[in-house]
Structures are given as C-alpha cells and as structure tokens.
Design goal:
- By secondary structure, the chain is α/β, with parallel strands linked by helices.
- Helix content is 35%, strand content 15%.
- The protein has one domain: NADP-dependent oxidoreductase domain (TIM Barrel), CATH 3.20.20.
- The strands form 2 sheets. An 8-stranded parallel beta barrel has the order 3-4-5-6-7-8-9-10, surrounded by 4 helices. A two-stranded antiparallel ribbon has the order 1-2.
- The chain is globular.
- It binds NADP nicotinamide-adenine-dinucleotide phosphate.
- NADP nicotinamide-adenine-dinucleotide phosphate binds next to strand 10 and helix 9.
Length: 334
C-alpha cells in the first residue's frame, strides 16, 4: 500500500492512496461480503474508508446501513486506531416520507448549522467513534448562507469531533469562497473535495457541478503553500460503476463521441502493460501530475484484489501520454 498526507493547515494525517467506498455495504452488498472486503482492505494496508449518512436510502436501506456496518466492524475487530473514516452529511432525507432525488425537489436536509451538528453527532454515534476523521458536506447547499455552513464545520473541527472538513458535489468557485470564508472566521477550511471522476470525460452539461475539472486540479495543485492551506481531491465512481471493465455497461454521464475511443485506448494499454483496464484507470488517477484519491466501490473480495493491484502500478511517461492523448473524432461524412 502507499500513503499520502491530507490536511487543511490545522489538522493533518496520512491515509492510503486508495479509499474504500462502502456505499453498497449492508444493502446491495451483503453483510458477510462487506465485512470480508473491509478485513482484506485493512490487511492489505488500506486505511481510508468512505461512507455517508444516507447510504443506501434509495435502494431500500434506511440510510445508515453503511455507517452501522462499519461501526459494528470497528468495534468487533478493535481497529479504530488503524483506519480513517470519512462520512458525509446534508443529503439525508429532510422529509422521511419522500424519496431522495438528485434534481429538485431533492429532499436533502442541506448544510444549515443545526443539520451539520446534529448529523455529525449522529454519524459518530452510528460509527461508534469519538471523532469523524473526515466530514464532508455531501452536496453543496446554496440556500444556506455560506458563512453559516463554514462556521458549522469550523466549530466541529475546533471541538475535535471532526478532523478535516470537506465538501462534495460542488462548483469550484464555492470551494474557493468557502475556504476564504473559513480563513476570515479563523476556522479550519475544507481540506478535501469529493467529485465524480473517471478516465472517460464527462459529458458537458449545464448546471452540473459534480465533476473533477482541470480547474479544480489546478486549484488543488496551487495549495499547500504559506497562506494557502492544502486541498486534496477525492474521486467517486472512479471505475465508472464497472463500465470501464464491462464495455456493455452504459457510460452514465459520459456517453459522447470521445468516450468509446478513450475506452478502447484504455483496453489497448491495459493489454500492453499486462494489467486490467480498471487497474490502468486507477493508476492513471493515482500517478497524475495532481494525484487524486480514488474512492473505489467493490462488491467482492476478488474485485478488491484487482483494485489493490493498481496501487503500485506505475505507468511510464509514454503510456501516460497515450492515455492523455485526445482521440480524433471521425469527421462526419459529407
Ligand atoms: N460523494 C458522492 O456524491 C458519491 C456518489 C457516489 C459514490 N460515492 C462514493 O464512491 C464510492 C464508489 O462509487 P461507485 O460504487 O459509484 O463507483 P465505482 O467505484 O466506479 O464502481 C464500483 C463498481 O464497479 C464494479 N466493478 C468493480 N470491479 C470490477 C471488475 N473487476 N469488473 C467489473 N466491474 C467491477 C462493481 O460493480 P458490481 O457490483 O455491479 O459488480 C462495483 O460495485 C461509493 O462506495 C461511495 O463511497 C460518493
């Protein structure tokens, strides 16, 4: 396993460069398999685990399935000190009787100060921990004054309930403003941003702010110097929910002219370097000029083994150049 330091200028710690996503644990992935994946991840040196307070409310779970499973596992294995747990608040159901949705009306609780505090305490209780190593706002909330949200995360960090605050599904300008607001308030700024990202490019869509963009990576690279607290980028759905490996799966959010060509390049490169397409896609992210922490979902120990195989796969510069070369679009027939 490899490790890197994350922080926000006030608090910092090391995490494995791969973060284990547990969204489906205890719901789509049965309890025994979920526990076996967690055990193997830690055995292999993995230390960074990602969950949320609403997993998996949209597939029949109660929303704390993943947190509860991790909490039980931590207590049973007695390994609280060996792992760093990230959870998220703000996108649980405001009205329990209504469904959650990514489009309005979302039914998200939002990031008001009361919600952030109450739900952070609740997450700590479900996870059975005294401190949430990372607490993300799950989806940016533009209805609540930014100063209120920033102050709420700041207070929890000051009190020690939260190690490092982060934000997910957010526009870059909001990240920058929130961090500047934190500096004004004299509290810990966001040290992590979690966005969707995989080797295939996102489909341009107005009004969507949930992707890792070149601007976000450029901004992250500019941090970590005097007066500019560090910011790390974590990526959800880095395997494109299995569509990188299984080409018959739909490429959600990215089905556009270059996606299939990039996928073909990925498979060609994988054959040449003797790795799987998933491993090459993860190595591409891990070894990038601005390294990103993939938050990887796995539904079996075998899938996890494949992921672990990517950690120490270093791609040569010429291979990276091929992967980064933009595919030529076929000219439309006249
Ligand atoms: N911040 C947010 O809003 C947000 C949103 C989504 C997710 N997340 C986090 O990100 C984590 C990962 O996200 P994700 O599950 O959406 O995406 P992912 O990591 O891209 O995809 C995981 C899925 O890929 C498939 N897969 C893995 N290895 C495979 C292999 N060798 N061959 C074929 N398929 C393979 C599996 O699907 P099958 O189970 O079908 O085999 C697995 O469940 C989540 O657990 C969660 O922690 C955060």
């Amino acid at each position: 396993m490899r490790y890197r330091t994350i922080g926000n200028g006030r608090s910092s710690f090391d995490v494995s460069t791969i973060c284990l996503g547990t969204m489906n644990f205890g719901t789509l992935t049965d309890v025994d398999t979920s526990l076996a994946i967690l055990d193997r991840f830690v055995e292999a040196g993995g230390t960074f685990i990602d969950t949320a307070n609403n997993y998996n409310a949209w597939v029949g779970g109660h929303g704390r399935d993943s947190e509860d499973l991790i909490g039980g596992w931590l207590a049973d294995r007695g390994i609280r000190d060996r792992v760093r747990i990230a959870t998220k608040v703000g996108a649980a159901k405001e009205n329990p009787a209504l469904p959650l949705s990514n489009t309005p009306p979302t039914n998200f609780e939002g990031l008001g100060a009361d919600v952030v505090r109450r739900q952070a305490l609740e997450s700590a209780r479900h996870l059975g921990v005294e401190r949430l190593d990372v607490l993300y706002g799950h989806v940016d909330d533009r209805e609540t004054p930014l100063a209120e949200t920033v102050g709420a995360f700041g207070a929890l960090q000051e009190e020690g309930l939260v190690g490092i605050a982060g934000i997910s599904n957010v526009a870059l300008w909001r990240v920058v403003e929130a961090r500047e607001e934190a500096m004004r308030q004299g509290v810990g700024p966001y040290g992590l941003v979690q966005q969707q990202y995989s080797y295939v490019h996102p489909e341009p869509k107005l009004g969507r702010h949930n992707f890792v963009t070149p601007d976000l990576l450029d901004y992250a690279a500019s941090t970590g110097t005097v007066g500019r607290p560090p910011l790390a980028v974590t990526a959800y759905s880095p395997l494109h929910k299995g569509a990188l490996a299984r080409r018959e799966r739909p490429l959600f959010d990215v089905e556009h002219p270059t996606s299939r060509a990039r996928l073909a390049t990925l498979h060609d490169v994988a054959r040449e370097v003797g790795a799987t397409p998933n491993q090459v896609a993860l190595a591409w992210m891990l070894g990038a000029e601005v390294p990103v922490i993939p938050v990887v979902g796995t539904s079996s120990v075998a899938q996890l083994e494949e992921v672990l195989g990517a950690v120490e796969l270093d791609l040569d510069a010429d291979v990276r150049a091929r992967l980064d070369q933009e595919p030529r679009l076929q000219r439309a027939a006249a």
